[in-house]
Every structure is written in C-alpha cells, then in structure tokens.
Specification:
This protein is of the alpha+beta class. Helix content is 35%, strand content 21%. The protein has five helices and ten strands; from the N terminus they run βαβααββββαβαβββ. The protein has a six-stranded mixed sheet with strand order 5-4-3-1-2-6, covered by helices on one side. Helix 2 packs across helix 3 and helix 4 runs parallel beside helix 5. The termini are far apart. The C terminus is likely disordered.
Length: 207
C-alpha cells in the first residue's frame, strides 16, 4: 500500500519580549513555521485528519500503536517539544492547523523558516542544543581518557629518568614539554596547552 508523507511543524512566533504567542493567540497567516519531523504513514483508508491525530498523539507522548510508539521515541530523542495550538501537521497535500478543538485546514502557503531553539531543532540539526552539548561532553570525556593514557606514558618515562610529577590535567603538547624538561632537571609551571595544564612540582632527585 502506498504511504503518505506526514510532517510536523512548530510555530515559532514570538512577541517583542521574546515570548511565544501562538499557543494563546492562535495561528495568524505568515507565522514562521519550522518543519521538525517527517515520516511515512500508511493511510489504510483514513482521512488526513485521522492521520494527523496519530501525529498529534505521538508528538505528545501518547502513541496509539507500536509504529507510532517507535516514531514517538524518535521524536523525543530529538528533544522536540510537544505539539500545541497553532502548530501544523501536513498530511500529503493537506496542511492541518492544530486548533483548540480539532483541526483547521490551512488555506495559503506555509512561511517556512530555519530556526534552532530549545525544543525546535530543524531536521538538519538533529538533537538540538541539548543533545549537541551532550555530544560535546562525550568528546571531552574521550579526550580526557586519552590524556589519562598519555599521562601513563609520561609517568613511565619520568620513572626511568628518576623524576616525580603531580598532574592536574594534561595535553599532548604538555607531555612533550614535561618529558624534555624532566630530562633537563628543570621545573616547569604555568604552561598552558589547549586549555590543559600540567605542573611539575618536584625536581629530579639530586638536581
């Protein structure tokens, strides 16, 4: 059976104070809209409004079956906010506005914008700011683990040289500098390397 494309759009209209106004004021022609989620649905003889009801349910955490439950998980994995009044669900060629009671067919074009804000990341920016921050944190943790492994290399090198170190944080540039300076019987402090610092607090014995 041929599927139909369903897309969910967030209304991002704000007033001069930066507050979202659409949920209270309703949709106004020309309101900026962000397409945030698209999927394929099987019509099974249903009307566009019935298919839009599934979209509304999955985007508000109340999926109706296994397929919409899967889509709901994907929707919330992207940290998308719930669908609300003045948002839009497009089913095939039918653009349906979320009204306070039911649906209203949109007559006229959609003013599409690309806007990346909390709860409304466009499809090209999966996850939104919150998820991207989590990814940055994971990358930092991986770098830190790498630095820890590098730290072991330096400790082994300095052990061979008879020196002792106390580390706070460490970068690759610091490893090279610390190793060279330890071999030269010098103390190294205050060196910054890509935001990481290493402090050599004890000279080599006998220096």
């Amino acid at each position: 059976m041929t599927g139909v494309t369903v897309s969910i759009w967030h209304n991002v209209t704000r007033d001069q104070a930066g507050r979202h106004t659409a949920p209270l004021d309703g949709f106004t022609p020309g309101d900026p809209m962000v397409r945030v989620f698209t999927y394929q649905a099987t019509p099974r003889g249903r009307s566009p409004e019935a298919i839009a009801e599934d979209a509304f349910a999955l985007a508000n955490g109340h999926p109706r079956d296994d397929e919409t439950a899967r889509l709901s998980r994907l929707y919330y994995q992207r940290r998308l906010r719930s669908v609300q009044v003045a948002d839009l669900v497009v089913v095939g060629e039918a653009a349906l506005l979320v009204d306070r009671a039911g649906w209203v067919l949109l007559r006229g074009g959609i003013t599409e914008v690309r806007l990346d804000e909390h709860g409304t990341p466009p499809p090209g920016r999966p996850g939104g700011p919150g998820v991207r921050a989590a990814r940055r944190n994971r990358r930092r943790r991986r770098r830190h683990m790498s630095h820890q492994a590098d730290e072991d290399v330096v400790l082994r090198t300095l052990a061979r040289e008879g020196g002792r170190l106390k580390f706070s944080r460490l970068a690759y540039d610091g490893i090279l500098a610390a190793t060279r300076l330890a071999r030269a019987n010098r103390v190294w402090t205050g060196k910054q390397a890509e935001g990481w610092d290493l402090v050599l607090i004890q000279q080599k014995p006998g220096s």
